[in-house]
């Protein structure tokens, strides 16, 4: 499901920003985390300039049901950042996954009706980068090149 992958990067953007959904810093797309270590995900998408204020407003009062689902799906330390580059706004999402089956948790999130409604609310504000758009997704995964605890 393409919405599932978009949620993968955006799930937390939506859940964290609006209190509740595509996503990576450590984007090796492993669906299981048998060592139960923290997996970090970073992602990026564009933001329509005319929707910037609305997007920010949504995320200042994220829906409690979305935030709850994000936590239930083992996503923590979820943040979305805004940066303007050459006059165009971009969103950067970061979260940490602590579960054991990322694919199953993302499927669970994507099946949640409250999260689906949230995505429908946030999607018109976003502009997928070409690689994500080609896959029918919203968020583009990012490669982690450095980390220090």
- Supply the CATH class: Alpha Beta
Please trace the helix and strand order, writing H or E for each element: HEHHEEHHEHE
Helix content: 25-40%
Mean pLDDT: 84
Computed CA radius of gyration, to the nearest angstrom: 14 Å
The low-confidence parts are 1-30
- SS summary, helix count: 6
CATH architecture: 2-Layer Sandwich
Derived structural class: alpha+beta
| CATH topology annotation | Alpha-Beta Plaits
State the end-to-end CA separation: 34 Å
- State the total count of DSSP E strands: 5
Strand content: 15-25%
Name the shape in a single word. globular
The domain count comes to: 1
* Biggest sheet descriptor: 5 strands, antiparallel
């Amino acid at each position: 499901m393409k919405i599932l992958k978009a949620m993968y990067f955006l799930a937390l953007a939506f859940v964290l920003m609006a209190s509740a959904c595509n996503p990576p810093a450590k984007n090796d797309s492993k669906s299981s985390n048998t060592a139960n270590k923290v997996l970090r995900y970073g992602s990026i998408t564009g933001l329509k300039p005319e929707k910037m204020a609305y997007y920010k407003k949504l995320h200042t009062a994220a829906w409690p049901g979305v935030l709850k689902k994000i936590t239930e799906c083992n996503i923590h330390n979820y943040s979305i950042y805004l940066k303007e580059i050459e006059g165009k706004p971009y969103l950067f999402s970061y979260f940490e996954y602590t579960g054991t089956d990322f694919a199953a948790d993302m499927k669970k999130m994507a099946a949640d009706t409250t999260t689906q409604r949230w995505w429908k609310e946030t999607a018109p504000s976003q502009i997928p980068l070409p690689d994500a758009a080609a896959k029918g997704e919203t968020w583009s995964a990012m490669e982690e090149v450095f980390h220090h605890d």
